[in-house]
Each structure stands twice: as C-alpha cells, then as structure tokens.
Specification:
The protein has 193 residues and is an alpha+beta fold. A three-stranded antiparallel beta sheet has the order 1-4-3. A two-stranded antiparallel ribbon has the order 2-5. Helix 2 runs parallel beside helix 4. The two termini are 27 Å apart. It comes from Psychroserpens algicola. Keywords: Coiled coil. Pfam families: DUF922 (PF06037).
Length: 193
C-alpha cells in the first residue's frame, strides 16, 4: 500500500522516489541477493517482507518486485542464427517491508496483486518474445521488448495504486483483482513454472 502516486504537490517528489526504487527493483538482482520467484501456488506472507521500514513514509507496506531478463544469441559467420531469452518475476524480500501493527490480510492481498502484476508483464514479455524471429536486429528487438515491458509494468503499478487508492477503495481493489486474474489466465501459456 503506497501513498505516493498522486501527481500533485508534495506527492510528485514521492512518485519520483517510488519510480527510482521500482526501476532499481526491475533490474536483475545481484547474484547474492535473495529473491522469491513468482509461483502460482505460493502467495506472499508477511514473513516474506524483511526489509527495514522506511521511516517517515506514510505507506503501510511496500512491495519491491521486478522483471529479471537475460538473453543470448548464437552467431555463425557474423550472422545471428538463433537466440534464447529468459524473463522472470521476482520479489525482493530485503527491499519489501510493512508496519507490523497495521498490516492485515486486505493489505497483504493488495501487495500480492503488485507481485501478480509483475508476473502478468513477464507473461506479456514472453509472448512478445515468442513473436520475434532471428535477424541481425535481434539484440535491439529483445532489449526493446524488455524496455517496453518495464514501461508498461510501471504504468500499470501506478494505475493500480492510484485507482485503488492504495487498497483503501475496496470496490476498485476488487475490480483490479478480477482484471489481473483474467489477464493472467489470458496469458497462461506464458506463465512461470
């Protein structure tokens, strides 16, 4: 639950800070950083939120999640002949936190949906990658697909928090929950294993 998405007054600075934190979380985690990969059968629990509480924040909880992405290409005689790409949705426990005295099941469900939205954009990225064909521009095309996935992910995360009023608007929270569930089903062929 983040109260940082309105673009007026002091909240513009908070939005900028959120986007910086969010974009850092989107990048591939260092090899020694603990992450939780999205899994259909495993939902987040409050014990997964291990980061230090950000003092002075008006948020009750913060979920750090993002897309990890890598690719490789094979070359023969200066011509690209094949490629592989991997994308995953990860949750970062050490960057995620909550206020123990205020965190409840409703807020946890809101935070889980942030992680589900990340998985949705991983699925969409995998779908876009599935449409790519090998060419001399494949590296650029893969980087562009990843960049666009991150842009769309950030937009949806922002829209979700704004419209649900960071989970306070229960009607909008329910609408978002149903929407994301339907979208995950729509892209189920590209789900994380």
């Amino acid at each position: 639950m983040k109260k940082i998405l309105r673009l007026t007054g002091n909240n513009t600075q908070m939005l900028t800070r959120f986007l910086i934190v969010f974009l850092v979380a989107i990048n591939t985690a260092p090899n020694n950083e603990v992450t939780i990969q999205w899994n259909e059968s495993k939902k987040l629990t409050w014990s997964d939120f291990k980061g230090p509480v950000e003092r002075g924040s008006d948020a009750v909880a913060v979920t750090a999640s993002g897309i990890t992405f890598s690719f490789s290409v094979q070359q023969s005689n200066d011509t690209f002949v094949s490629f592989e790409a991997h994308a995953d949705a990860h949750f970062y426990p050490e960057k995620s936190w909550y206020l123990k005295d205020k965190g409840d099941d409703h807020i946890l469900a809101h935070e889980q949906l942030h992680f589900d939205i990340t998985e949705l954009h991983v699925r969409k990225l995998r779908y876009e990658i599935s449409k790519l064909r090998i060419s001399q521009n494949i590296k650029t095309e893969l980087r562009h697909a990843h960049e666009q996935a991150n842009i769309q992910l950030a937009k949806m995360q922002n829209a979700y928090d704004t419209q649900s009023e960071n989970s306070m608007n229960k009607e909008q929270q329910a609408i978002w929950s149903a929407f994301v569930k339907a979208e995950l089903i729509k892209y189920k062929a590209y789900r994380s294993q």
